Amino acid sequence: MSRYQFIEQVATTEPVQVLCRVLAVSVAGYYQWRSRAARPTPAWEPAASAAFSRHAQRYGTRRLRAELRAEGHAVGRYALRNWLHRRGLRALSTPYDNAQAEAGWSTLKTELLPNGGVFTSLEEARLEVAHYLDTYFNLDRRHSALAYRSPHQFECDFLTTIS
Question: Which residues, at least 6 apart from 127, have a Cβ–Cβ distance to it below 8 Å?
Fold first, then answer.
């Protein structure tokens, strides 16, 4: 919360001049802030929120940017980084493992079991891993090694190219 937002909330019970002095801001600056028209929400923000949720908070700025660009939104990584930061959101992260297999398991564990979670049974683990690999990982998840395309999209593009 900014100092101006705090002043606006408390101004119903305390004088604005006193609040401004205590918070070391000018009274004129506060009133200028209040008179500004609210900035419209960029069209990419609701799309970013939907994509971040749809991918279960697995996408960082690079994959999220690729996802939004595929949907027709022009947005930069730094704008996305600031947007995530302002909302207190953080993508799940893993790939400084040395071996490729270790990196794959690390990604699987991080994205499938966030915050050190555990499966309740072996059957649940089998179902979740199967869904993650067969559905999400191959059809939806954008891979940096494939120019931020899913393996399915990469294969479709490849088949289109060679036809």
Answer: none
Q: Give the list of residues 6+ apart from residue 151 with CB closer than 8 angstroms, or none.
A: 137, 138, 139, 143
Backbone angles phi, psi at 97, to 5 degrees: -65, 145
Rounded to 10°, the helix 44-54/61-70 angle is: 120
pLDDT tens figures, 95-154: 744 566 677 777 888 888 877 788 889 999 999 999 998 899 889 999 888 999 999 999
The average confidence (pLDDT) of the chain is 88
Closest CA to 50 of 35, 76, 70, 33: 70
Residues in CB range of 58: below 8 A, 6 or more apart: 91, 92, 111, 141
Q: Measure Cα distances from 163 to 32, 150, 156 in Å.
A: 61, 20, 11
**Residue 153 is encoded by which pair of tokens?**
């999209």
